[in-house]
Amino acid sequence: MHAMIEYDNYDKALIVTGDGDFYCLVDYLIKNGKLLNLMIPNMSKYSSLFRKLRPHMVFMNDLRGKLEHVQRK
Predict the structure, then answer these.
(1) Residue 13 domain boundaries
(2) Tens digit of pLDDT for each residue in 51-62?
């Protein structure tokens, strides 16, 4: 809801979800050129509704190596 309230105040949106309840929002943002990416937290578990949006999807699993804190001895 907030993404639509603030629609005119941003250029691109990064939506972080795997929940299909947000499919309509993501689809609308794509159609209007406002979606940067759909970031899905878990590539093993996300709504099948998002499968057709594959070009816009980024998985957080892929970021683990970049974001993980490695303790050095």
Answers:
(1) 2-62
(2) 999 889 988 887
> pLDDT tens, 17-40?
999 999 999 999 999 999 999 999
Residue 32 near residue 4, CB atoms below 8 Å: no
* 19 located within any domain: yes
The total number of structural domains in the chain stands at 1
Q: What is the pTM of this model?
A: 0.79
What are the angstrom distances between the C-alpha of 64 and each of 21, 45, 69? 26, 16, 9
Give the burial class of 17: count Cβ atoms within 10 A of its Cβ; 0-12 exposed, 13-18 middle, 19 or more buried. Answer: middle
| SS3 assignment, position 8 | helix
